[in-house]
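User: Hi! Is it possible to get a structure for several chains at once, not just one? Here's what I have:
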Amino acid sequence: MISLLMRDLRLAVRAGGGFGLGLAFFLIVTVLVPLGVGPETGLLAKIAPGILWIGALLACLLSLDRIFALDWEDGSLDLLATAPLPMEGIVSIKALAHWLTTGLPLVIVAPGLGVLLSLPQGGYFWIVVSLLLGSPALSVIGTFGAALTVGLKRGGLLLSLLVLPLYVPTLVFGAEVARRGAEGFAVQTPLLMLAGISFGAVALLPFASAAVLRINLR
Amino acid sequence: MDLQVFDLAVARGGVPVLEGLNFSLAEGRALVLRGPNGSGKTTLLRTIAGLQPALEGRVEGAGERIAYAAHADGLKTALSVTENLSFWAQVFGKEDISAALQGFDLVDLAHRPAGSLSAGQKRRLGLARLMVTGRPVWVLDEPTVSLDAASVALFAEAVRGHLAAGGAALMATHIDLGLDEAELFDVGPYKAKPRVSAQDEAFL
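Assistant: Yes, the chains can be modeled jointly so their relative placement is included. Here is the combined structure:
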């Protein structure tokens, strides 16, 4: 298990691993939005939490099809399936590796990019908290989508269409936490909903992902 | 414990390709599957390896005892030869990869990225993976594709060593490996008759 995680992390940071892809996309979105919206800091400050969340979500989506597609193409997925690791363990490790290489870096750079969007002062803490809590759900749900579409040629479009609706609850409550935090309101309700979605997804979806992966490997 | 196959029928994409298969493979023996292209050798091997369910019949003595090698080698081009092998060794709970490196003459290539190897060298690395799994039953699908004569001899030597150590090997191959222990098994007579499938596999 650990060796699979280490291999995935090592592959992500080597040439062609796509480690910086999500980060670069996130950076581009948050740099371009102020240019597109105009120099109104009031408006920017109002939409900043939402923009950061949408940017993080899309950056996450961008790298999803790599989770299983590469292992499928070179045959390692078949070999992993016959290895003494449970399939649920394999998909959980894959989701964890995706989160460590995509979700976590996004959480870390989000406050820095908040400056570009003139995020109100109280918002920095809550954008980090909401992304930290919500991004594992994005990775786990995305892994499920990637398992569904593995083996399909050009499955990226289908993957996005399948995963986006599943991302909506996470986005709604995540952005709500960040928005309320930025405006100084109580965040408890959306925070609890976000935590519920995240923990529920992490606990249950690996079983679904493993089941669809087994069917797709036939 | 022998690998035994009883009344096995296998299907590819919902269409039965082979049926009524019965054979057993004892320790120290090798079984070479023969049959024309498309006759279902790969499907049979995937079923025995547990990657797809059998249509009918059962396989005993497989499961966690199988080390499977397919057409694709499962190599990561960005990792070195040593890293690739060590990864698989760790997955199977082993440490030592030196025997596998020596057995397939990969010592000189140990630090090269797998992406820079030739097709035959990649194949040798893919086969060396079998030696680090420590599993008794090797299930091999066309193991000698793109190997030169010297490498085929290395491979035959590795299989011989594996059989001598009490292992078994089931392989689909078209060339003669010169293994005395090997029996031939022609899948031709077991071709499945067309039948109407009661269930649509897509909805299983």
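The two ends of chain B are 32 Å apart (CA to CA). DSSP finds five helices and eight strands in chain B.

User: Great, thank you!
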